[in-house]
Structures are given as C-alpha cells and as structure tokens.
Amino acid sequence: MLQYEDAPDPVPNADEALVRVKACALNHLDVWARNGLPNVEIPMPHISGSDIAGVVEGVPEGEQKFAKGDEVIVNPGIGCGRCDRCLSGKDDQCKDYAIIGYGIDGGYAELVKVRRDHLVKKPPGMTFEEAASFPLAFETAYHMLVTKARTGPGDTVLVLAGNSGVGSAAVQVAKLLGAKVIVTAGDQEKMERAKGLGADYVINHYGEDVLSEVRRITEKRGVDVVVEHVGKATWSGSLKALARGGRLVTCGATTGADVTMDLRYVYNRELTIYGSFMAGMGELLEVVRLFEQGRLKTVVDSVYPLQRAADAQARMDGSRHFGKIVLKV
Ligand SMILES: [Zn+2]
After folding, report:
1. How far is the CA of 76 from the centre of ligand 1 (A)?
2. CA–centroid distance, residue 82 to ligand 1 (Å)
C-alpha cells in the first residue's frame, strides 16, 4: 500500500551526499516494488522513486565537484564501481547492482541520500520536473537501441506503446540514430503525439492488427529492431514482426512475464533476443549531453504533488499517460 507519512531524515554515509528533492518521476519499477516480485526483498517501510531531480543539501568531506546549492539529477543505478563489469562501463551487469528507489529509499520524499559519484549536473534550462522525467526512460532506450541492438540509419524500428516513458524515449533515440520508426499507441490523441515525436508510422494497437500493419508498411519484409517492454500480450507478435536477422530488445513485461514463442522463428530467421536492464553511468552522461545539445526533448505527461503519489501511480497503471508522470515535492 502506498501511504503518505512522516519518515526520519536520511543520514548520509561518509561517501554520500544529501539531496533536497524537487521532483521525482514515476516508473513501472515503483509498482513492481509495491506489488512484490519473486526473490526480491523490499524492506518496509520503503520509499520509492528512482528518477530524482533536486538541489544538493550537503556533500561528503573532500567533495570537489559538487557543493551545497547545486542543481542535480541522480543516476539511479548503483554498481560497486570496482568489479570487471563496472570498470568496463557495464555497471548494469554488476552482481551488486542496486537501484535507488527499489530496495533503497528513493525520491518520493523531501530528502534523499545518494552516493556522491551518482550526482549529475542538471542540464541548464530544464525545470526540475523535466529533469526528473528523463534519466531512467532515456538511458534505458539508449541502452536498448544503441548498446544492445546497435541500431543504424538503414534500420526500421518498431516501438511498442509509444505513450510509455520508455516508448516515447525510444521513438526519439531511434530517430536520432537515423532509423525509420513505427510506433504503436492506444488512441487517436496518443497517435498524434507519437507522430509529434518524429514517428514515421503510427499503428493503433487496439483498433488495428499490429503484425499485419507492420507487414504492410515494410512490404512484408518486417522490422530490424523491436523495442519490447509489454511482454505477454505482445511477445509472439513482436518476434513475428522481425525481418530475417532482426533484433528484439526487451526491458520489461508490464502485461506478464511468462511468454511463449515459436522457436522456429528464432532459428530459421536468425533472430537475436537481447535483455536490457537500466544502463551504465557513461550512457546516462551521453543522454544528458544529447539533451544539452537540444537533440532530445523531455516528454512530461503530468505533474502531481507528492501527497497524491497514489493517484499518479493509478494514472500510470491505467496507461492513461503519454510520457512521464512526475511528482513535485
Ligand atoms: Zn561492480
């Protein structure tokens, strides 16, 4: 159950900074933490919230880069920083990987403590709500399309649920990489907005058959990359939508994780399936640079006061949003 209540102020460890939260965006991860996942222990009471923007309240002794008053965002993924994976930029594969707001108290709060090396300067010109809206969704989309699927200008990319945080980010990243983008959306208004983000084709995933539309648009060839995060409801169609040699990248399963598939599609067509989970710090910094250059734009659906976090989560759960839902603290 999600409840608004008083909690003690976090006490930073020797290597942690204290951040006064100004805004915190919602992610499906928040709902997964609340509902519980097998083999994941979430200590209670737990403060959700992985996408944080705020102002530095205090820094550890000897900190050179950041000072009290600096406007920051927070890299939500924490690797140990010392293992072979972390040292090769694959923090997300660290065996000790943890996420702020998912087992560690996060940003649905006035104050949060974070490791000092997880502070990132907030891009200038962005509001706190905009700044909180992009880290997790865009680093995930970047990791999926750039690092995993190695998307290029000749590719056609199918992005499922373009209204979601990751979907609305993936449309933009895929366009930036020069790909042709097909996106699915659930109603006319979301379809228009997806077009506004640069999508070349939009399919109504309730009103039209996605697979036959993809075949029509690609003249039966199929797409090179599918950005999957829906899971059970779409998985088999996503595989069938791929061209020979196509790549499916998945970062979530909002409709269920126990999927079935016809393996013959995988080997006959030489398909590749990539799992994708968060991203490395280097990838987040790359995303920040793209925002600073004006080549990506934040997509904020709505802003709720912190007290109404439960209403905000209900909006996300009901898929009524387009882009990110943000809590203002
Ligand atoms: Zn590590």
Report:
1. 15
2. 5
